[in-house]
Request: fold
Amino acid sequence: MCHKFQCSIVPPYILEQLAKQGSNSCKRTLIETQRIAKSRNIALNNLLQRTDEVGTGNRIVYDCLNEYRQKVKKARSEGEDKVADATANLAYDYSGYVRNYFKETFQLNSLDGKGMPIISNVHYGKAYNNAFWDGDEITYGDGDDVQFSNFAAGIDVVAHELTHGITQFLGNLEYKGQPGALNEHFSDVFATIIKQKFLAQDISEANWLIGDTVVAEGFPGKAIRSMSAPGTANEFDSQPDHMDNYYTGSSDNYGVHINSGIPNRAFYLSCMAIGIDDCALIWFQTLNQLWRTADFRDMLEVITKVANELMEEGKVCDTADNAILESFSMVGINNPAV
Amino acid sequence: MKYEINIEGGFTGIPKTYKGEQSLNNEEKTKLLLSLQKTFADENTKTRDGFNYKLKLTDHEIVYNFEFDEFNIPKEVRMFIESIIKK
Ligand SMILES: [Zn+2]
Reply:
């Protein structure tokens, strides 16, 4: 016999079998069990959503202890005092600076707009020459001190990686070919803007370089990339500054770090024409409106539309659309409709 | 064992190639080759600026070709690459 009391701990698949065999009490219990499970799921979802809503982009920095693993040991959390490890403090301070820039300038709450925690990992691997975003968190290597030094110590590196996170939640540009080059472009754009804000520099005094503070003595160049003169930052720099020299090979996910030089130069020219603050707003709103497979021409179409809308609202100068069209044209990206 | 290692991508976007020959004792070779027999986890498609490791090993006449990202590279392969970079 199946009493209600006993049925409450019986697994659902057995209840289903018993219900099929005609037990009404098991049928009722099954329905009740499903109702409870459903309401539990709703409650859990609400709880998760509420957690999302109240997030404020709290920072957590982990020390990887030179292992190739993330989140090995917690080093510093939001609101805690400085710790002995200078690298952990830099990752904490710089990620806070980037988070606050996006919050104060565009009212963006953390990377996803919902206040997700900002997790950084420092001291990843041994003499590891890289920094990356993995979909959830950022990871920095110490560098080998021959070619590169500590990647967490570059405000532009931190801003670049965090912007990858923002891109994932806004345009979500896929990471290959032209959409991938645009993904890289947006990271370099906000790395440049934030670096200039951080250093309190005017566009005329800025060096427009990416990664100049993380290249070491043995590196044959002054930086990793140049926004103003793509292709000139170092001996390996193969970035084109015009569509005429567009890279068509398959390396680097079909040139995501290579062809980004083309829109990067257009951004630099636009800043020179209308100023970096107007460009920041236009580029951010454009990222908001792009989509996964958007290419360079899609970008031009969207960015001119965004510039026009912002001009009509009086939020950017009234030469913005023409200045941007001109800048893109100078790097060989033209609107087919014009 | 002959090797050719290509490391692409990364924040710097500067590719690195290492080519040469490395003598491994039997135990080291077995460990390395066994690690390449396992089923690898899927690539993390959300990674941005992650390294991509392309590995070609030639042991006598047998050629092994493998490709890994930051999250599915076997520990033994990473150690092998580290020892090459250190050279
Ligand atoms: Zn990047």
Summary: The first helix of chain B runs from residue 26 to 35. The two ends of chain B are 15 Å apart (CA to CA).
